[in-house]
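Exercise: predict the fold of this chain.
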Amino acid sequence: MDDFLKHFRSKRLEESQETLMQTQCPYCSVQCSMTLIEEAFMTTKQFKAKPNKQDTTSGGRMCIKGANAHQHVYHKERITSPLLKMDGEFVPVSWELAIEYIAEQFHYLQTQGGHDAIGVYGGGSLTNEEAYLLGKFARVALKTKHIDYNGRFCMSAAAAASNAAFGLDRGLTNSLSEIPHTNVIILAGTNIADCQPTIVPYFRQAKKNGAYIIVIDPRETATAKLADLHLKVRPGTDSILANGLLKVIKQEGYIDDTFIKSRTNGFENLNTHLDSFTLDDVSAITGVPTKDIIEAGRQYGIAKDGFIFTARGVEQHANGSDTVKQFINLVLATGKIGRHASGFGSITGQGNGQGGREHGQKADQLPGYRSIENDTDRKIIASVWHIDEKALPRKGVSAYEMIEKMADEEITGLFIMGSNPIVSNPNAILAKQALQKLKFLVVVDMFISETAQLADLILPSSSYLEDEGTMTNLEGKVTLRKGERPPPKGVKHDWEILCSLAKALNKEKDFDFASPSHIFDELRLASRGGKADYFGISYKRLSQEALAWPCPDEEHSGTPRLFETRFAHSDGKAIFSPLGRIPDGCGAPPEYPLLLTTGRVMAHYLTGVQTRRSPDLLKKSPEPLVEMHPETAARYHIQHDELIHLYSAQGSVIMRACLTDKIRKDTLFAPFHWGGSQAINRLVAPFLDPVCQMPAFKLTYAGMKPLTEKVESQDTGGLNYETVDQGSSERKEKSTRLNV
C-alpha cells in the first residue's frame, strides 16, 4: 500500500499542471498581495494562496479571507451571461440584446423624467479605473447628477472631519511602518484584529517596544486584548469621551502651545468649551470611570509620540463627523502630527474605499478629489473630458437619499455596479420597497445578490483574479492588481460594460478605452493638480513598487507622510472644531431600552455576497449571532444559542443569541453580512449626519424577546410575523419613515 501511494503521488506530481496567478485580496483596505497557486490534475483542481513576503504593507501576511477568497471565484452560482427577467424568471440573453435594451430603457425614462431620472450606485471595491469610469459614465453618458456609492456608509464621516481639520482626506497621515516606533496609541472604535488582521503585528511590535495602547470600544474584542487600558464606552458618546481626554490634557499641562500657535486656528473656542463640563460629567454620560479617563488622557498627553486611529465604531453615527473632529483635536492640541511616529488615521474599511472616493463616485466629487461645485475644478475636468463645463451636472444626493428619491419616484431607473444596497442601507425595508418601485433596474454583479433578485437585468462581471486595475490601500498607496485568470466565457469586466453602454448611448468617442492602463492614463491627467494627485504614478512604476499619493510627477517618490510642514488649507494651518451637537446614546426610550451596534466578523466582508459563497469562510461563521451580556439575557429570559426576535421602531429580525461577558450590559452587537430576515439594517433608522450623510449604523435603540414570544406590531414598526420556524420567517413588510 505504501508503494502504491508513493507511486500515485509521484504520478500526480508528474501529470499535474500548476498555474501561478499574482493578485491581491479583494476584501479589506490592506490589499494584501499574494500568489494563488492552481494545481490541476485530471478533472480536479486544488488551490493554495501564498502571501507575498515583499509586500510593504501586509509584511507578507494573509488572513483567512484572503486565503479563501478564490473559492467564490470558482463557485457554481457565478453568473456567466446577462440575465433578463421575463415573467418573474431570469432568462439568459446575449450581450448585444442586453446592452441595447438598457440603452432603450434609459433613453425612454430620461425622455419622460429628465436626465436625473436615472441613478447610478457604485461600490468601494471597484478598481480606481472603474470607479473613475463610473463617475464619468454617470455625468457624461447619462448626464445625471444622481451618483453615489456604498463608501458613503464607510468613510464619509472621517473624510468630512479630515477635510475640515486638515484640508485633505487620506486614510492614514503616516505609513504603517512608523507604528512600532511610537509611544502611545489610541484605537477608537476600530477592531483591527477582526477587520484588518494583517496589520495587527505593527501594533504588537509597538507594545513590545513599550507603547501604551488604549482601546475605546463597548465590547472586549480581540483588539481590546492588546490594550493596556480598555475604555468600555456607551455607544454614541465617543465625542464626549474625546472631550474628556482633552480636558485632562489641558488640566495636566500637556498642551503644545507652540504647535497650536504656529500651525493651527480655532483653539480659543475649543479651550472655552473645555471649561463648561467636569470629568465626572463625562463619566456619567459615557459610562467610563473618571479615573480611567484621567489615565487615558495623561498617557496620551505625556507621550512624546503618538497615534490616534478611528474607524466605524465612532464614525457611523448621526454625529460621526463631529466625533472624528474631537479625536483630531487631541492630535492637534498635542502637536502629534506631521512627523515620524505621530499622526492620525481612519482605518479604511473597503478594499478600495480610499481610491473609490477620490475619483468621482461620490455625489459631490470629481476625479482627483476635486469638488463638483468648484468652478475651477469643473473647468479642469470638463477640459479633460472634452465637454462644455455647463453640461457637467452639479452635485447629487447621498446613497440613502437616493433611496428616498426612488421611494418618491423621482428616480425611476437605477444602474448598480458592485453593491448590494437593500442589505447595506439603513431602513433596509424601505430600501427594498424603493427598488421595487423602479421602472427599470440593472445590477452588475458576479452573483444573484439580494438586490440582484429585484433586477430587470443582471450583467455578469469579472472577479478580482480576472480584473486588472489599481487599488489605493489604507496608507494611500496605489497598487497594481494583476488580472491573470481569464474571465469565464460570457463574462465582461466592469470597464468593458461601461464602454459598451456608452457606445449604445452614442458616447463612444468619450469612452474609447482599450485597457485599464488606457483609462488610468486619463485618470492621471484628470487628477493632476488635485488634492489626490496621481499624475506621477504609472503602470510601469507600479509594476516595481506601490506609491503613496500625492505624487505630482514621475520623478516624485510619493508621499508616505503628510503635513510635515503645512496642512492643506490655503493658509497652511489646521483647524480645531468644538463639539457641535449633543451626541446620541445618552438615553434610550423605555420601549427600546437596549443599544444595538453593528459590525463585522473576521470570516465575512460587507453584505457577504462573496464570502458566504466561500465554503471555508461560511463554515467558520455560518449565521449571524447577537452578542449580549448574560445578565441582560437573563432579564429577557433568553438562553445561549436561542433564536430571538430583535426589533426596533423600523422592523424586526430573527437571530441567534450569543451570551458573552465581554460586552456592556446595555449593549447588543450584531454583524451585517446577511440578508433576508437576518439583515440587521432592517432595524437601523435613517438618521443621517447633517455634514456627510453617514447613517447611524452604530446606535439603534432596540428591544428583544425569545422567539416563542409574540412581537407586538408597535414593537416592530408594524411588522407582523405570520409564520415562524427555526430557520426562516414570512412577514408583511411595512416601512416606517422617520423624520430626521
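Check your answer against the key: The CA atoms of residues 546 and 714 lie 54 Å apart.
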